[in-house]
Amino acid sequence: CPSIRNVVAKNGRLFFSPRRDLRSIRAEGGDLQILLVAPATKGVTPALWAEADAVYFGVEGDTALYAMPLGGGPPRVVDRGDGPPTFVEVAGGEVRWLAAQQIRRVPLTGGAPTVHPLVIPAPHAAVSTAGELHVVANVFSPNGVLYRHTWATGELLTLASGLTRVGQIAVDDRYVYLPHYQEAGGGIDRVAR
Questions:
Q1: pLDDT of 55-99, one tens digit each?
Q2: Rounded to an integer, what distance in angstroms lies between the CA atom of residue 127 and that of residue 136?
C-alpha cells in the first residue's frame, strides 16, 4: 500500500486515502473496501472527514468538495471553491473547508455557502481545534508559513515563517507540531499556538 495521505475514524471504521483512491477498513482490521477510484492522473486530496452518513473529500485539480454516501451511491458535489480542498470538517451544523484562498462554510441543511477570503499562498495542510484553523502553506520552498485563523473573528495571524518541506501538522493545547519530509532532514518542529 502506498503512503497514506490522511486517515479518519468514524463508527468503528477507518477511512483513508493512499492518493489514487478512497478506502475504508474496520478499525479492528478486515473488510477493506475501495469506495472511490480517482480519475486518471489525479488523486484524492489530504482533505478528509467522515460522518455517520458520508465521507467528505476532494480530488486534485478539481475545485469541488464531495460527499460519498456511506449507504451507497455516487459522490455528490457539496460545494465548489477556488481550488481543490486542503481541509474539511463538519462542525456547528456546517461543512467547513479550505480551498485555494477561501474558507467556505456550507450549512448541512442546505443553502448558499458563506465564503471568507483567506489570502494564503499554496495551502498544504490544515487542522482545526478549539475555535482555530492552523494552516501550513508554501511548504515546497524555503519560505513556508504557518498561519492561525480564528473561526469566530476571521483573524489571520502568522505564527512562523521560513519553514521548509513540512508535511502534515498536528495541534495540541499548547503547540502546533510540524513534521518535516525526510529529504528536508526529518524531525518535528513545534511552535506555540
A1: 999 999 999 999 999 988 899 999 999 999 989 999 989 999 998
A2: 9
Q: What is the pTM of this model?
A: 0.83
* Residue with the three cell numbers 486515502: 17
Cα(18)–Cα(24) distance, integer angstroms: 11
What span, in angstroms and rounded, lies between the C-alpha atoms of 7 and 27?
A: 11
Give the separation between CA 148 and CA 131, rounded to whole angstroms.
10
- The DSSP line for 136-176 is EE-TTSTTEEEEEEETTT--EEEEEEEE-SB---EE-SSEE
Nearest to 94 by CA among 73, 76, 115: 115
- The amino acid occupying position 192 is A
Tens digit of pLDDT for each residue in 26-35? 999 899 999 9
* Per-chain mean pLDDT for the chain: 87
| Residue 2 Cα to chain centre, angstroms | 19
Specify burial of residue 52 (Cβ count, 10 A radius: 0-12, 13-18, 19+).
Answer: exposed
